[in-house]
Amino acid sequence: MTAQPPPFRDPRASVEVRVADLLGRLTPAERIAMLHQYTPAIERLGIPAFRTGQEALHGVAWMGRATVFPQAVGLGATWNDELVRRVGEAAGREVRAMRAHDERVGLNVWAPTVNLLRHPLWGRNEEGYAEDPHLTAALATAYTRGLRGDHPVYWRTAPVLKHWLAHNHERDRVTASTSVRARVLHEYELPAFRGPVRAGAVSGVMPAYNLVNGRPNHLSPLLADELRTWTELPLVICSDAAAPSNIAGLQGYLPSHAEGLAAALRAGVDSFTDDNEDSAPTVERLTAALERGLITQEDIDVAAARLLGMRFRLGQFDPDDDPHIKDAAFDTPEHQELALTAAEQAVVLLKNNGLLPLRSGTRLAVVGLLANEVKLDWYSGSLLRRTSPLAGLRAHPGVASVTFAEGADQVRLRTERGWVHAHAAPGAEDGEPTATAALDPALLAGRTDLPPLTVGPEAEATTFALIDWGDGVLTLRAPDGRYLSVADDGLVRASADQPGGWVVQETFALEPHGGGHLLRHRGTGNHVSVAADGLKVAEEGDVFFLETVERGQDAVAAAAAGADVVIVVAGNDPHINGRETEDRTTLALPPQQDRLWRAAHAANENTVLVLTSAYPYAVRDADAALPALLWTAHGGQAAGTALARVLCGDVSPAGRLPQTWYADDAELPGMLDYDLIGSRTTYLYYDGTPLYPFGHGLSYTTFDYTALTASADGTELTAEVTVANTGGTASDEVVQLYARATDPSVPRPHRSLIAHRRVRLAPGESRELSFTVPLAEALGFFDVAHSRWTVEPGAYAVQAGASSRDIRRTATLTVAGEPAGPRPVRDAGLAAAAFDETSGTELVDTAREAGDAVSAGADGVGELTFRACDFGTGTTTVDLRAARAEAGEATVELHIPGTGCRATLRVPSTGDRYAYTTVTAELPGAPAGVHDLCLTLHGPVRVDRLTFT
Q1: What confidence score (pLDDT) does residue 427 get?
Q2: For the chain, which terminus, N or C, has the lower number of CB atoms within 10 Å?
């Protein structure tokens, strides 16, 4: 008689039954081991090993060659949900196909990034979709649906959203705390996550490195109080790399690692990504926490059950029944065509005075530091194929001829001991740079099989291409196309196909010294010196003298003078000056690239500037001077072909900006100023005139908007609009629907995107579009006075247009709503964090586990304003709950404007920031009824709440 398989082996059983059965068969030690990123196999049960974490932000990353789609911000620029879903599906199918040949490829996919592009200097701008929560949520939902697949039982991959929460800075990203007021949290930050989670295609979420309101994100009570209330699916929380150790380490939030990991587990973290493949420290810390009573066996079992549930849904235990094994596909013609389509749809036409599209037979000069490049980023796969802008335009049948000038300065380097000479790699030939690099970890680890640079007589001097990427960061490239790089042995070689790696070893800086320059290697921080075995990095460096053989702008001007039209391709290298771990310092185009477009334009007025970048630039002068500008994110393997097809008119551009392009650095808030309401930033609140607004993008045709109507019932808002192509070119149009409150009681956005649709229209074609949006999402806001989401009664404008500043039609409607009413402070007290306005304060943690308090900021003085406080029939005293770790006392002044009522509350030292005391003051002249209330905080003090009696 054949033995029946255990229930966890029965594919007909529910996931819950299978998880419970398998969990019951595991020892306590095996359950704890499951909580590390690298879960070992359990041979006695035939359970294979498993790991969380496979990067697939815009195609499969880090595992070798794969289809490379445009960067996430480029996918954001398509404003095309269905296209992004198809990209996610292709990435998921390639994950499956690659896993069949390489077990290192994981099915738990850490993508997409849904952090909002609040600040354009964020180093990881390339990873997000948009500055708007609606657009971000819609595209993230689409991408995760593609990754997950539509099978009712088995998931193609298990997507994990990154990074919870309010993560939009790289400097001090582990130790800095961001203040996120309640309205910004509920109206801006949470919706980007809530949309895809509610859609049911998300398996989990990854907390961010930073702290929010003084508390590490990996301990966020919002994981339980918000995130896990949005779905019945048992979401898996995967920590970011090394973040569990940060809690007691760099953040110093708890005194020991056992306490740190225990707190994270209690908060809801299930999978601990720490110490790479070495699970021993995590297992030891969790075991110690269990033995000390910091966590319970139930805490461990709940996390292990969530992880097992994900594995069952991925079909790990049912390979014969999993349809995605047969559905796997890699580098198919469909994927190649999709990569081209995505790159085409991501191109944004910023300005056009009629020069574009190019006429057939045009003689082009294609110039610029990115003209012959296909740049990758940290989360790219390796290229299977590539087409640069230069190659794409050379191959286009409508272009008569192409002249190329990169525009890099050609220089020679000399020391007191001789001229620098680079030895070509075997088989390499001089010529145009090739830019064929992939993110191959073996390559980026540093090659030592090539000869190092040496010094010798002038006749042996090598002419290098010098590119200044801004902020004094430069790369040097030898004539064979390889970049100077430093390997582990410290020798300088022309060995890298491209700059790259977690620590970039191909960037240098020139530091004036002794009539010449020291050449500092940024990867090690050391200087280049002349050693017996060649150029080498050391603490003490030699003085180098730079001789310019040819200025890049001169070569560009010469090429431009003989062409009908000049295409200048400028932008960034995603591994340099703006990337993970490094924010940008300015919106300005690097000076060398600024000189190139000016030189081209001086030689030929028909100059087009193409910005290929992971983020916005402030190019006000270029916008004023040039007839045409375009922007595209780094577009992946088909970037050059896509750009050529747009420039030559095969495709009418229809990409739209997913974030505001400001005209100057002065218009930006501080990197840590997350209060977009107070700082008046993003298109939602920005009061100035942007260089290019959110949603902006031009076309080769024209569109007309008519017949906009809007209506609302108790739960939904419905709008209809007719859009017509009134020009002579077939094109997509991105129809954007916005809403705004006409007379709000609190500061509300100028307008908020509530719906969008990208539609294809032939010349003369019109289409009636209908949108249905939940009324609360479209018109509501978070009422801090009553801690609830609400829709106010009154008039609202529903607007349809081509951008946030190009509104074509407006319809009005009136909704009954629910009046907010005054704050019931006499009856319910007043939470300090529930302010309406603030200056000079920061939000901090009331306790380590939960709660938000307010303290004065760095200047030691902070102000809070609370509108419409209802004091009932009057009050005589106020109680303040506050804490002060420092010696001495702090003061909190209370003021009710227009009444003469003032009080000073003196908070003594409580010895600890979490030790609270209650102080009381009389309120002479306190009024009855509804009034505003102001608090002024002097000195280090944590204010939790006020009670009136």
Answers
A1: 58
A2: N
